[in-house]
Design brief:
With 112 residues, the chain is mainly beta. It has 2 domains: 46 residues, no CATH class; 48 residues, no CATH class. It is built from 1 helix and 6 strands; from the N terminus they run ββαββββ. The strands form 2 sheets. A 4-stranded antiparallel sheet has the order 4-1-6-5, with no helix packed on it. The longest helix has 15 residues. It binds zinc ion (ZN). The site of zinc ion (ZN) has 7 residues, from helix 1.
């Protein structure tokens, strides 16, 4: 009989540095019907503010809805080998104040 040993590594959720965050503003000025003009997706919030300034200058509209989106990835702790995450083996859910999400991973075979 073979015995397999599982080890548990506290992964953390971090912003994916390989993808730009996205900032968007939409003009929601108007009583009956909102304007709806959109800045389009920008990677720099300053570009969104520039668009808002120009839109307000041209229309007198003052109210916007801003949204932010980014990509997040689970990362193993520094120095830990990644191994392979086994789906369904999340052993503990994070509490609100914790950023650590232990996941079960299979031990990586030693290569030497
Ligand atoms: Zn507008």
């Amino acid at each position: 009989m073979t015995r397999s040993v599982m080890r548990f590594v506290p992964y953390t959720i971090a912003q994916d540095q390989t993808a730009w965050p996205e900032y968007v503003a939409r003009c929601v000025s108007g009583d009956e019907k909102e304007c709806g003009a959109e800045s389009g997706s920008k990677s720099d919030p300053a570009d969104v503010e520039k668009w808002m300034t120009n839109h307000t200058r041209g229309t007198g509209h003052l109210r916007y809805r801003r949204t932010f989106a980014d990509y997040a990835v689970f990362e193993p702790p520094e120095g830990a080998e990644g191994g392979r995450v086994i789906p369904g083996e999340v052993v503990e859910h994070a509490r609100a104040i914790e950023v650590s999400h232990p996941l079960a991973i299979e031990p990586r075979k030693a290569t030497a």
